[in-house]
Amino acid sequence: MGIVYRARDPRLDREVAIKVLRPVLASDAEARQRLRREALSAAALDHPYLCKIFEIAEDGSALYLAMEFVPGETLQARLERVPMTLPETLRIGPKSPRPSSKPTPRGSCTAT
């Protein structure tokens, strides 16, 4: 659905990831709404394994998200290179956010 680019935010002097809709979807109202929902959902949560959303904006007809840049290999690239072993899967799997990990809504605090 989208293409992610590595970029630099000159105002805050930091690396960011920019996700834009693929050109064939730029005028698709459903795809644009889906990207907006993705941004709102991610921005509403705070979890160590979810990237932070900094901005959703438009530049001409291009809708984009500016988000936290997380260095490293993508899961897709890793799986294309060589299948994961069971120990690797067991090491990475528990760190992935899932409904049982209860991300905290942004702006709220939890008692410890």
Q: Using the coordinates shown, work out and report the CATH topology of the domain at 2-70.
A: Phosphorylase Kinase, domain 1
Helix percentage: 25-40%
Highest-level CATH class of the domain at 2-70: Alpha Beta
* SSE succession: EEHEEEHHE
Overall average residue pLDDT: 83
Strand arrangement, major sheet: 1-2-5-4
Please compute the radius of gyration using only Cα atoms: 16 Å
Determine the CATH superfamily of the domain at 2-70.
Phosphorylase Kinase, domain 1
Q: Could you tell me the strand content as a percent range?
A: 25-35%
CATH-defined architecture of the domain at 2-70: 2-Layer Sandwich
Shape: globular
Poorly predicted spans: 108-112
- Distance between the terminal alpha carbons, to the nearest Å? 39 Å
What is the overall number of helices?
3
Largest sheet: 4 strands, antiparallel
Number of strands: 6
